[in-house]
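Holo prediction. Input below; ligand is adenosine-5'-triphosphate.
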Amino acid sequence: MKKIIIAIDGFSSCGKSTMAKDLAKEIGYIYIDSGAMYRAVTLYCIEHQLFDEKGQVKEEELKARMNDIHISFRLNPETQRPMTYLNGMNVEDRIRTMEVSSHVSPVAALGFVREALVRLQQEMGKEKGIVMDGRDIGTAVFPQAELKIFVTASPEIRAQRRYDELKAKGQEASFDDILYNVKERDRIDQTREISPLRQAEDAILLDNSHLTIQEQKEWLKTQFLKATHA
Ligand SMILES: Nc1ncnc2c1ncn2[C@@H]1O[C@H](COP(=O)(O)OP(=O)(O)OP(=O)(O)O)[C@@H](O)[C@H]1O
Ligand SMILES: Nc1ccn([C@@H]2O[C@H](COP(=O)(O)O)[C@@H](O)[C@H]2O)c(=O)n1
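Structure of the complex:
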C-alpha cells in the first residue's frame, strides 16, 4: 500500500501523541512528536542560562547557538516508544516537566527556531510513512499531507488528564497550575506571528472530550483506512 503523511495538530494535552503513537505502531509508520523538539530546545535554554531574570529568552544568544543543538529520536528497546535525545543525551523525562512546559511556547514562537525544526521535520518525512503531531504540521510542515486531523477538547478535561497522568507517575501537580499552563500555551500558540496554531482547511476536526482512548484510536484508524483506500 502506498505510504502517506498523517498530520495531527491541535490544542495542548488533548491526546494527539497518544493517538498518533498508537496508530503509527499499528500501521508500521514512523511517529514523530514535534512538540518534543521544541521542548528539547527549551531545555537547552534552561540548562545554558538562556533565559534572563524576567524569564525572557535571550534571542541573540540562542540564535548563535542553534547549530550546537542536535535533536534526534531513538526507540526504547523495551517499550518500543520513541525517546527524545538532545546532543546525544536522553532527555525524554526532563522535557516533560512543568518548568519546560511553562517556557516552551515563547521559544517556539521564534522564527529561527521554527525554521531549523521545520527543516528537520520535513527531512524526517521525506520518505512518507510518517505520523507527526504538533501545532503546524498540516498547515506549514506538510501542507501536502494526505490525512490531516485537528484535535480539541475542553481545557478543563485536558488539564484533568494531564493532572491524572502526573499523579499516576507520583509527581507533585496542581490542577490549577496545569489548567493555567494549558490555556496560556494555547493562547501563545494561537496568536504568534509565524505558523500560529489553527485548523487547516482540509483537516478533519475531532473533539475527543467524551471519547475514551480506545474510541479515539478506532476513530483515527477509520480515517486512515478511508484516506488510503479513497
Ligand atoms: N480520550 C482520552 N481520554 C482520557 N485520557 C486521554 C485521552 N486521550 C489522551 N489521554 C491522556 O491525556 C494525557 C495527554 O495526552 P497526550 O500526551 O497524548 O496529549 P498531547 O495532545 O500529545 O499533549 P501535548 O500537546 O502536551 O504534547 C495523557 O495522560 C493521555 O494518556
Ligand atoms: N509543531 C509544533 C509543536 C509544538 N509546538 C510548541 O511546543 C509546545 C510543546 O508541544 P507539546 O506538543 O509537547 O505540548 C507547544 O505548546 C507549542 O508552543 C509548536 O509550536 N509547534
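The chain has a mean pLDDT of 96. That is the main takeaway for now.
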